[in-house]
Amino acid sequence: MQIKWYGQSCFEVKTKDTIIVFDPYSDDIGLKLPELSADIVLVSHEHFDHNNVGAVKGREKEKPFVISSPGEYEISDFYISGISSFHDKSEGKERGLNTIYTVSGEDIKFCHLGDLGTGLSDEDLEKIGDVDILFVPVGGVYTISAEEALSVINQIDPKIVIPMHYKISGLNANLDGLNEFASQVKISDLEGQDVLDIKKADLPAEEREIVVLKAKQ
Q1: Cα gap 21→5, rounded to integer Å
Q2: Among 5, 102, 109, 111, which one has the highest count of C-beta atoms within 10 angstroms of its own C-beta?
Q3: What is the pTM (predicted TM-score) of this model?
Q4: 134 neighbors 153 (Cβ within 8 angstroms)
């Protein structure tokens, strides 16, 4: 499994037979989304910096299969669960709803929290279940803060954490940078790596790893 990050909450997860893209954004945020193609596109919520599905081409079909709401889905060799959550601490009254996605494939389960704006309940955690790789927003302002992100990470207890939705060069959104999150956790490489190539045998057995990815443009 190969994982790339394109800034904000946009990731590409590629396996031997399937490509999944999360939360493609509009160029209005100041970043340029590269040309992407996918079999499946997952959208956490309908804000312009997360729902630009028209920018992603299909591979085998003319258009990718788009999932933008909670539910259970089985596509190709992947089992996908969408879990309803809130984009704010006021039960969605400020910014609406957000969908958390868990995706299982190639013996790895990863979880994309989207623009989660609040902590997780016991019911949320039961629905999420055990997670190998967690994509978590850490930039605050529109999502949970760095400190809150650490609390959510400890709740889910994944093997690998990949931070997302924080201030990077070119992004015109007013978010906190990675340093705020780095002050809460141990990160060995703040500069980050281009790609995470991972298989089940590579997952850490004991100590949790924080993996920073460079935003590919």
Answers
A1: 10
A2: 5
A3: 0.93
A4: yes
